[in-house]
Amino acid sequence: MKKIFLITLFFIGISVIQAQELKWYTDVKEAITVSNKEKKPLMLFFTGSDWCGWCIRLQNEVLKTPEFSKWAKESVVLVELDFPRRTAQPEEIKKQNNELQQAFGVQGFPTVFFANATVKDGKVNFEGLGNTGYVAGGPTAWLAVAEPFVKKPTLSPEPAKTKKSKKS
Question: So what's the pLDDT on residue 121?
């Protein structure tokens, strides 16, 4: 009986861990499609995953926590734009990441941009919502900085209606 209980507990634990795993896109065009479908902004994480100490720290202190995971699933579409030194990458990913680094003017790592994106006539247009990097204080402090970027009010496409004045 103990064995059945332990095996059941083991499988429940595995399913909980898998349920918490986040989807990080590396193909920006795929992420944009998901972003527009789900009506969530992109969170573009520019990182040097195998050499940048602050990037690794941000990953461990914030991006791998249950608090961040819960927030991210509800609020953003995650995109990792990695610039590794020891890990090989496909050429198309390197090219894409370099183009986005130039487009966003990223000069240091980690940098996190929040943006909405649209594709028109084959060209991607980004609307920047804000950016941040490493923030000391764990997930609560980092999320306090990130939250206003994804919760910005959107302007209504309809013009405001005005009341007509009565003539006597």
Answer: 87
Cα–Cα distances (Å) from 137 to 47, 67, 74, 108, 140, in that order, read 19, 13, 22, 20, 7
Taking alpha carbons only, the member of 74, 114, 88, 93 closest to residue 27 is 93
Spell out the residues 6+ positions from residue 89 whose beta carbon is closer than 8 angstroms to its own: 82, 97
Asked if 117 contacts 124 with a C-beta cutoff of 8 angstroms, the reply is yes
Two structure tokens written together for 136: 């000391």
Q: What is the mean pLDDT of residues 76-91?
A: 97
* Rounded-to-integer distance, Cα 44 and Cα 64, Å: 16
**Closest of 131, 101, 126, 98 to residue 114, by C-alpha:** 131
Residue 40 phi, psi (nearest 5): -125, 145
For the whole prediction, is pTM greater than 0.85?
no
